[in-house]
């Protein structure tokens, strides 16, 4: 399996504080069947502002430590960026990373409370540059919870919607779980990712969510959400 949204780099944001905990998270992911993780520290929120070059350096260090443990796991660079009007300029400069630094897909986070008026224009500008947008955990957005169909307007812009594993299994509460289920039913969820932050409360695991999704859309489609669909994103 491939996890495209994971806060696994030490000391970058509100994820693990130490490399030791990062490696423990890697072990949890490997045991769950995850073989590739995109490290996506927060940026653009005004709270965390990790720079692209620092993320890539941290990924190299973590991969070197994983190799010493002979673990069958690979970490790739990326960002979990809050969407903002000047985003395209920061991607071009390298301050904000696309998925695997390939300039093909970018992971975008909406504010919890709303969908800002400028979101569509930013996504349009990214598309003009050949970059497709992945909106992370829309099921946790209050606007989407009230009306999941609001996401349909983004489909014409080739947007991908990534739901959180723990939302499906109930870890983010009933509204997020109900909305995640509704998005699956409506075909408005394309990838499942962990959005992991720790080894305890928010671990990097996908298999339980795949089982839950399979109850709704069937096992074949559920497995594609953690294999073939994210594979397209990271290659």
What does this molecule look like?
With 235 residues, the chain is of the alpha/beta class. It has a single domain (2-234), classed as Metal-dependent hydrolases (TIM Barrel, Alpha-Beta Barrel), CATH 3.20.20. It has helices at 19-32, 52-68, 87-93, 119-128, 142-146, 165-168, 174-186, 207-217, 219-224, 228-234, and strands at 2-6, 36-39, 42-43, 74-77, 80-82, 105-109, 132-136, 160-164, 191-193. It has a 6-stranded parallel beta sheet. Helix 5 (142-146) links the parallel strand 7 and strand 8.
Properties at a glance:
single chain, 235 residues, alpha/beta, TIM Barrel, 6-stranded parallel sheet, 40% helix, 15% strand
Show the helix and strand layout.
Layout: E1 2-6, H1 19-32, E2 36-39, E3 42-43, H2 52-68, E4 74-77, E5 80-82, H3 87-93, E6 105-109, H4 119-128, E7 132-136, H5 142-146, E8 160-164, H6 165-168, H7 174-186, E9 191-193, H8 207-217, H9 219-224, H10 228-234
Parallel strand pairs: 1-2, 2-4, 3-5, 5-6, 6-7, 7-8, 8-9
Mean pLDDT: 96
CATH architecture: Alpha-Beta Barrel
Strand order of the largest sheet: 3-5-6-7-8-9
Number of strands: 9
Q: What is the rounded distance between the termini? A: 14 Å
So what's the oligomer here? single chain
Rg calculated over all Cα atoms = 16 Å
CATH fold-level topology:
TIM Barrel
Q: What fraction of the residues are assigned to beta strands by DSSP?
A: 15-25%
CATH class: Alpha Beta
Name the CATH superfamily classification: Metal-dependent hydrolases
Residue share in helix: 40-55%
- The helix-strand sequence is EHEEHEEHEHEHEHHEHHH
Structural class: alpha/beta
Number of helices: 10
């Amino acid at each position: 399996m491939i996890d495209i949204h994971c806060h696994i780099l030490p000391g970058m944001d509100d994820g693990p504080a130490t490399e030791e905990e990062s490696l423990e998270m890697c072990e949890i992911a490997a045991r769950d069947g995850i073989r590739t993780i995109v490290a996506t520290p927060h940026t653009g929120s005004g709270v965390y502002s990790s720079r692209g070059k620092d993320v890539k350096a941290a990924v190299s260090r973590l991969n070197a430590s994983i190799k010493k443990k002979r673990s069958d796991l690979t970490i790739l660079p990326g960002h979990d960026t809050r969407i903002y009007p000047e985003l395209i300029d920061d991607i071009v400069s390298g301050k904000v990373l696309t998925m695997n630094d390939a300039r093909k897909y970018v992971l975008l986070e909406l504010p919890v409370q709303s969908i800002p008026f400028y979101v569509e224009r930013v996504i349009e500008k990214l598309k003009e540059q050949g970059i497709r947008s992945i909106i992370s955990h829309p099921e946790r957005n209050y606007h989407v919870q009230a009306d999941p169909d609001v996401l349909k307007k983004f489909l014409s812009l080739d947007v991908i919607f990534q739901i959180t594993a723990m939302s499906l299994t109930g870890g983010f509460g009933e509204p997020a779980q109900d909305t995640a289920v509704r998005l699956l039913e409506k075909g408005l969820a394309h990838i499942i990712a962990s959005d992991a932050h720790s080894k305890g409360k928010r671990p990097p695991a996908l298999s339980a969510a795949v089982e839950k999704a399979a109850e709704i859309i069937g096992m074949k489609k559920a497995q594609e959400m953690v294999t073939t669909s994210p594979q397209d994103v990271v290659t």
